[in-house]
Amino acid sequence: MAEGTRYYTWAMTQWIPAITSHEMQDVDEALFKMGYDLRQLMENAGAAMAYLAARYLHENPAGKKIAVLCGHGHNGGGGMVAARRLHIYGAQPEVLVPAGTLKPVTWHQRRLLENMGVRVSQISRVDEQSWQTIIGADLVIDALVGYGLKGPLSGVVADMLNHVGTMSCPVISLDVPSGLSSDGEILNGAIIEATATMTLALPKKGLVMPQAQGYVGDLYLADIGVPGELYRKMGWSMAPIFNGSPYIPLTDTKTGEEGDR
């Protein structure tokens, strides 16, 4: 891709920019400077994910078995919020987390789930016993790795992705399909092939590049509460995106020069 080229995606009535991981970090930092709290953003992301999951369950999540795969970081925390919301809707979420230390905010979400009676299992390897709990799931939520991925996945996380590939139910990824670079780099390793991806705040560049299409599936954008004024201060002039909906579909892609934004 030529230097200075930007990807755009079509959202409802306007083109919006697809951003890099560094630009998303800038958005996060600007939100924190405004006084936003990480738990607040995580709650918004997980709530939107639960709404989308309900759509893929034909608006009838009650009694449905949902496998929620969560990483140690903030993406995993968003997946746990989705699991909690779906439990409230009457679904039966089963949460699997790779063995290891959770970030504090993600640990808080795990504690909420366990206080509600939702089982959270940490696994050190993927085998028949550890995977048995999610056999026959009606839906998989992939919240293992977010936009900060730096290289190919390996170990138990890669094994989890490979096992998801053997399941026949829909798979929805949070922000970025685990294993896929948010910046569009080609990574050799396990990558989720999602039925749909719900990305957060703004679409990530790697999601709309041609080589990603077999992994992303249907692409949606979630409202996590970013005010339009923040985007305008960062140089992206956009009309309101969501108009009251927790998420919107993204369709079509174009490229343009950096000055087009």
Automatic annotation (TrEMBL):
<keyword id="KW-0520">NAD</keyword>
<dbReference type="GO" id="GO:0031087">
    <property type="term" value="P:deadenylation-independent decapping of nuclear-transcribed mRNA"/>
</dbReference>
<feature type="binding site">
    <location>
        <position position="142"/>
    </location>
    <ligand>
        <name>K(+)</name>
    </ligand>
</feature>
<dbReference type="GO" id="GO:0000166">
    <property type="term" value="F:nucleotide binding"/>
</dbReference>
<dbReference type="GO" id="GO:0003729">
    <property type="term" value="F:mRNA binding"/>
</dbReference>
<protein>
    <recommendedName>
        <fullName>NAD(P)H-hydrate epimerase</fullName>
        <ecNumber>5.1.99.6</ecNumber>
    </recommendedName>
</protein>
<dbReference type="InterPro" id="IPR004443">
    <property type="entry name" value="YjeF_N_dom"/>
</dbReference>
<dbReference type="GO" id="GO:0052856">
    <property type="term" value="F:NAD(P)HX epimerase activity"/>
</dbReference>
<dbReference type="Pfam" id="PF03853">
    <property type="entry name" value="YjeF_N"/>
</dbReference>
<dbReference type="InterPro" id="IPR036652">
    <property type="entry name" value="YjeF_N_dom_sf"/>
</dbReference>
<keyword id="KW-0413">Isomerase</keyword>
<feature type="domain" description="YjeF N-terminal">
    <location>
        <begin position="24"/>
        <end position="232"/>
    </location>
</feature>
<comment type="similarity">
    <text>Belongs to the NnrE/AIBP family.</text>
</comment>
<feature type="binding site">
    <location>
        <begin position="74"/>
        <end position="78"/>
    </location>
    <ligand>
        <name>(6S)-NADPHX</name>
    </ligand>
</feature>
<keyword id="KW-0479">Metal-binding</keyword>
<keyword id="KW-0521">NADP</keyword>
<keyword id="KW-0630">Potassium</keyword>
<feature type="binding site">
    <location>
        <begin position="146"/>
        <end position="152"/>
    </location>
    <ligand>
        <name>(6S)-NADPHX</name>
    </ligand>
</feature>
<feature type="binding site">
    <location>
        <position position="178"/>
    </location>
    <ligand>
        <name>K(+)</name>
    </ligand>
</feature>
<dbReference type="GO" id="GO:0046872">
    <property type="term" value="F:metal ion binding"/>
</dbReference>
<keyword id="KW-0547">Nucleotide-binding</keyword>
<dbReference type="GO" id="GO:0033962">
    <property type="term" value="P:P-body assembly"/>
</dbReference>
<feature type="binding site">
    <location>
        <position position="175"/>
    </location>
    <ligand>
        <name>(6S)-NADPHX</name>
    </ligand>
</feature>
<dbReference type="GO" id="GO:0000932">
    <property type="term" value="C:P-body"/>
</dbReference>
<feature type="binding site">
    <location>
        <position position="75"/>
    </location>
    <ligand>
        <name>K(+)</name>
    </ligand>
</feature>
<comment type="function">
    <text>Catalyzes the epimerization of the S- and R-forms of NAD(P)HX, a damaged form of NAD(P)H that is a result of enzymatic or heat-dependent hydration. This is a prerequisite for the S-specific NAD(P)H-hydrate dehydratase to allow the repair of both epimers of NAD(P)HX.</text>
</comment>
